[in-house]
Protein backbone atom coordinates (compact mmCIF):
# COMPACT_ATOMS: atom_id res chain seq x y z
CA UNK A 1 0.00 0.00 0.00
CA UNK A 2 1.20 3.52 -0.82
CA UNK A 3 2.37 5.74 1.99
CA UNK A 4 -0.10 8.44 3.03
CA UNK A 5 1.28 11.90 2.22
CA UNK A 6 0.42 15.36 3.49
CA UNK A 7 1.57 17.95 0.97
CA UNK A 8 3.52 21.09 1.84
CA UNK A 9 4.12 24.33 -0.04
CA UNK A 10 6.98 23.82 -2.51
CA UNK A 11 6.35 20.12 -3.09
CA UNK A 12 6.75 18.88 -6.64
CA UNK A 13 4.14 16.31 -7.54
CA UNK A 14 3.41 14.20 -10.59
CA UNK A 15 0.24 12.67 -11.93
CA UNK A 16 -0.35 10.08 -14.57
CA UNK A 17 -2.20 11.94 -17.31
CA UNK A 18 -2.48 8.90 -19.56
CA UNK A 19 -0.81 5.51 -19.39
CA UNK A 20 2.94 6.17 -18.97
CA UNK A 21 2.53 9.92 -19.62
CA UNK A 22 3.08 12.16 -16.61
CA UNK A 23 2.28 15.75 -15.77
CA UNK A 24 4.01 17.79 -13.08
CA UNK A 25 2.87 20.45 -10.65
CA UNK A 26 4.07 22.41 -7.63
CA UNK A 27 2.13 23.18 -4.47
CA UNK A 28 2.13 26.97 -4.08
CA UNK A 29 -0.28 27.54 -1.20
CA UNK A 30 -2.46 25.90 1.43
CA UNK A 31 -6.06 27.05 1.35
CA UNK A 32 -9.20 26.02 3.20
CA UNK A 33 -10.29 23.62 0.43
CA UNK A 34 -6.93 21.94 -0.14
CA UNK A 35 -3.67 22.75 -1.88
CA UNK A 36 -3.28 25.33 -4.65
CA UNK A 37 -1.09 23.91 -7.41
CA UNK A 38 0.51 25.17 -10.59
CA UNK A 39 0.59 22.63 -13.42
CA UNK A 40 3.57 22.98 -15.75
CA UNK A 41 3.22 22.84 -19.53
CA UNK A 42 5.52 19.84 -19.77
CA UNK A 43 4.65 16.15 -19.99
CA UNK A 44 6.94 13.15 -20.12
CA UNK A 45 7.08 9.38 -20.22
CA UNK A 46 9.61 9.59 -17.36
CA UNK A 47 8.14 10.30 -13.92
CA UNK A 48 11.57 11.62 -12.81
CA UNK A 49 11.62 14.40 -15.43
CA UNK A 50 10.46 17.02 -12.91
CA UNK A 51 13.66 19.10 -13.25
CA UNK A 52 12.76 19.79 -16.89
CA UNK A 53 9.11 20.37 -16.00
CA UNK A 54 9.74 23.19 -13.52
CA UNK A 55 11.67 25.10 -16.21
CA UNK A 56 8.51 25.35 -18.34
CA UNK A 57 5.67 27.88 -18.06
CA UNK A 58 2.39 27.09 -16.38
CA UNK A 59 -0.34 25.44 -18.41
CA UNK A 60 -3.06 27.44 -16.64
CA UNK A 61 -3.62 29.54 -13.53
CA UNK A 62 -3.37 27.79 -10.17
CA UNK A 63 -6.17 25.41 -9.21
CA UNK A 64 -7.17 23.91 -5.90
CA UNK A 65 -6.31 20.23 -5.61
CA UNK A 66 -8.24 17.83 -3.39
CA UNK A 67 -4.97 16.47 -2.02
CA UNK A 68 -6.71 14.68 0.84
CA UNK A 69 -8.51 12.35 -1.58
CA UNK A 70 -5.50 11.94 -3.88
CA UNK A 71 -2.59 11.64 -1.45
CA UNK A 72 -4.08 10.63 1.88
CA UNK A 73 -7.08 8.44 1.03
CA UNK A 74 -5.79 7.41 -2.44
CA UNK A 75 -9.33 7.33 -3.83
CA UNK A 76 -8.46 8.03 -7.46
CA UNK A 77 -5.65 8.54 -9.93
CA UNK A 78 -1.94 7.96 -9.72
CA UNK A 79 -0.45 10.97 -7.92
CA UNK A 80 3.05 10.96 -6.46
CA UNK A 81 5.12 13.30 -4.31
CA UNK A 82 8.36 13.64 -6.28
CA UNK A 83 10.39 16.13 -4.24
CA UNK A 84 10.06 18.39 -1.23
CA UNK A 85 11.37 21.96 -1.45
CA UNK A 86 11.04 23.53 1.99
CA UNK A 87 12.72 26.75 0.85
CA UNK A 88 10.22 27.48 -1.92
CA UNK A 89 8.07 30.61 -1.48
CA UNK A 90 5.43 31.66 -3.98
CA UNK A 91 5.40 35.44 -3.81
CA UNK A 92 2.37 36.24 -5.93
CA UNK A 93 -0.43 34.53 -3.97
CA UNK A 94 -2.69 37.60 -3.78
CA UNK A 95 -2.70 37.83 -7.61
CA UNK A 96 -5.06 34.86 -7.95
CA UNK A 97 -8.61 35.17 -6.72
CA UNK A 98 -11.60 32.82 -6.81
CA UNK A 99 -15.30 33.48 -6.34
CA UNK A 100 -17.48 31.73 -3.82
CA UNK A 101 -21.00 32.20 -2.57
CA UNK A 102 -24.22 32.46 -4.52
CA UNK A 103 -25.23 34.64 -7.44
CA UNK A 104 -25.88 38.13 -6.19
CA UNK A 105 -23.80 37.54 -3.05
CA UNK A 106 -20.35 36.51 -4.25
CA UNK A 107 -17.15 37.00 -2.32
CA UNK A 108 -13.60 36.58 -3.55
CA UNK A 109 -10.82 34.71 -1.82
CA UNK A 110 -7.13 34.75 -2.71
CA UNK A 111 -4.38 32.21 -2.10
CA UNK A 112 -3.45 33.97 1.15
CA UNK A 113 -6.96 33.08 2.40
CA UNK A 114 -7.95 36.77 2.35
CA UNK A 115 -11.65 37.28 1.72
CA UNK A 116 -13.07 40.22 -0.25
CA UNK A 117 -16.73 41.05 0.30
CA UNK A 118 -19.13 43.41 -1.47
CA UNK A 119 -17.83 42.36 -4.88
CA UNK A 120 -20.09 43.49 -7.73
CA UNK A 121 -21.70 40.60 -9.60
CA UNK A 122 -20.12 41.50 -12.95
CA UNK A 123 -16.64 41.54 -11.40
CA UNK A 124 -17.07 38.30 -9.43
CA UNK A 125 -18.25 36.39 -12.49
CA UNK A 126 -14.87 36.99 -14.16
CA UNK A 127 -13.15 34.79 -11.58
CA UNK A 128 -13.03 30.99 -11.44
CA UNK A 129 -15.06 29.16 -8.81
CA UNK A 130 -13.46 28.39 -5.46
CA UNK A 131 -13.68 24.61 -5.68
CA UNK A 132 -11.24 21.76 -5.35
CA UNK A 133 -10.48 19.34 -8.15
CA UNK A 134 -9.77 15.64 -7.97
CA UNK A 135 -7.98 13.45 -10.47
CA UNK A 136 -10.71 13.56 -13.13
CA UNK A 137 -11.14 17.36 -12.93
CA UNK A 138 -7.44 18.11 -13.27
CA UNK A 139 -6.92 15.63 -16.12
CA UNK A 140 -9.99 16.87 -17.97
CA UNK A 141 -8.75 20.45 -17.76
CA UNK A 142 -5.19 19.53 -18.82
CA UNK A 143 -6.33 17.42 -21.78
CA UNK A 144 -8.75 20.12 -22.92
CA UNK A 145 -6.04 22.78 -22.90
CA UNK A 146 -3.48 20.54 -24.58
CA UNK A 147 -5.98 19.79 -27.34
CA UNK A 148 -6.72 23.49 -27.71
CA UNK A 149 -3.01 24.36 -27.88
CA UNK A 150 -2.43 21.62 -30.44
CA UNK A 151 -5.33 22.88 -32.53
CA UNK A 152 -3.97 26.45 -32.40
CA UNK A 153 -0.53 25.19 -33.47
CA UNK A 154 -2.09 23.33 -36.42
CA UNK A 155 -4.04 26.40 -37.51
CA UNK A 156 -0.93 28.56 -37.20
CA UNK A 157 1.24 26.22 -39.30
CA UNK A 158 -1.51 25.91 -41.94
CA UNK A 159 -1.78 29.69 -42.27
CA UNK A 160 2.01 29.96 -42.71
CA UNK A 161 2.00 27.63 -45.72
| Percent range for β-strand residues | 25-35%
| Amino- and carboxy-terminal Cα gap | 53 Å
The DSSP helix count reads 4
The strand count comes to 9
The SS-based structural class is alpha+beta
The helix content is: 10-25%
The whole-angstrom Rg is: 17 Å
Which strand order spans the largest sheet, edge to edge or round the barrel?
Answer: 5-1-2-3-4-9
Specify the biggest β-sheet.
Answer: 6 strands, mixed
Given as residue ranges, the uncertain stretches (5+ residues, pLDDT < 50) are none
What is the ordering of alpha helices and beta strands?
Answer: EEEHEHEEEEHEH
Query: What average pLDDT do the residues reach?
Result: 90
Q: What is the general shape?
A: globular
Could you characterize the architecture of this molecule?
- With 161 residues, this protein is of the alpha+beta class.
- The protein contains 4 helices and 9 strands.
- Strands 5-1-2-3-4-9 form a 6-stranded mixed sheet. Strands 6-7-8 form a 3-stranded antiparallel sheet, with no helix packed on it.
- The chain is globular and about 45 Å long.
- The N and C termini lie far apart (53 Å).
Amino acid sequence: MNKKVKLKVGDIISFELQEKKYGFARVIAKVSLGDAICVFNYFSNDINDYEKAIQHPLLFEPVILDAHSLFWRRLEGNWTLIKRDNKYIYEDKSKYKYKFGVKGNYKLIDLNNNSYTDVPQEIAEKYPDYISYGDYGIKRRVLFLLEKLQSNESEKSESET
